[in-house]
Amino acid sequence: MRIVYLLFPFILLLVQGAAGSSLVPGNKQQCHREKGFCGFLNCPFPFGISGKCSRFFFCCKKLFG
């Protein structure tokens, strides 16, 4: 019964991490569908990171406007 108190925080962390994982672009096609582009390691100034295209490429979308 004591182990339940130890496992409860880990279960909450897993659920919290999985909650919003499907809301951001996860591949190149989703990024382009949301009018973004894939940038290597970072995005140029008027753009911000909005998801991941692959391991080192991030989905860049316009921050303002």
Write a brief caption for the model.
With 65 residues, the protein is of the alpha+beta class. Helix content is 37%, strand content 25%.
Commentary on this structure:
With 65 residues, the protein is α+β, with helices and mostly antiparallel strands. It has a domain at 25-64: Antimicrobial Peptide, Beta-defensin 2, Chain A (Roll), CATH 3.10.360. It has helices at residues 2-19, 28-33; strands at 37-40, 47-52, 57-62. A hairpin with a 4-residue loop joins strand 2 (47-52) and strand 3. It is elongated, with a radius of gyration of 17 Å. 12% of the residues are buried.
Give the helices and strands, then pairings.
Layout lengths: L1 H18 L8 H6 L3 E4 L6 E6 L4 E6 L3
